[in-house]
Amino acid sequence: MTQILARQVIETAGDAGWMICTIESCTGGMVFAALTDIAGSSAVMDRGFVTYSNQAKQEMVGVSGDTLAAFGAVSEQTATEMAQGGITHSRADISLSITGIAGPGGGSDEKPVGLVWMAIATRQGVQQLKRFDFSGDRIAVRQQALAAGLQLIHAGLPKSQAR
């Protein structure tokens, strides 16, 4: 299923003439890897940022230290700034950010294991922000985030009328 979704993303982006950027934390580049597994992806893939640490989020895509201090790495605010930063620091027309808690540790009552925030940004600004509450072990959470991320970016791409 992941390969089918990835192929749809690559084809839709190609039809639209759009470049893609990913900014990933808990998925560690899985979305970018899935997309670049597809032949022809070089025509639409600009770059992927793996921003696992707070420092990387700040240095690579410009997430504010104040945002991280106030809301944490796993928050709607951080996901939004990551997506916006991806657009700012790339040639992409659309970016997908993912930040979450894959587990097994690191969760809390307020931010449980499986909590993942994703955002889609385009040159026109943030288009979508979504919270997910995935279940299962670390591998399951990351796989679910991969699939959801591919679906989200596909939904954010303009659809060509000529098919």
Task: Describe the overall structure.
The chain starts with a helix and ends in a 7-residue tail after the last helix. It has helices at 2-16, 30-36, 54-61, 65-71, 76-88, 138-156; strands spanning 20-24, 45-50, 94-100, 115-122, 125-133. It is 42% helix and 21% strand. The longest helix has 19 residues, at 138-156. The chain has a five-stranded mixed sheet, with helices on both faces. The protein is built from six helices and five strands; from the N terminus they run αβαβαααβββα. α1 packs parallel to α6 (138-156). It has one domain: Maf protein (Alpha-Beta Complex), CATH 3.90.950. α2 (30-36) links the parallel β1 and β2. By secondary structure, it is an alpha/beta fold.
**Uncertain spans, ≥5 residues at pLDDT below 50?**
none
Distance between the termini: 22 Å
Strand order of the largest sheet: 2-1-3-4-5
Assign a percent range to the helix content.
40-55%
Q: Main beta sheet: strand number and arrangement? A: 5 strands, mixed
What would the principal axes of the Cα set say about the shape?
globular
CATH homologous superfamily placement: CinA-like
Oligomer: single chain
Mean pLDDT: 96
For the record, the count of structural domains works out to: 1
SSE topology string? HEHEHHHEEEH
CATH class: Alpha Beta
CATH topology: Maf protein
Query: Can you count the helices?
Result: 6
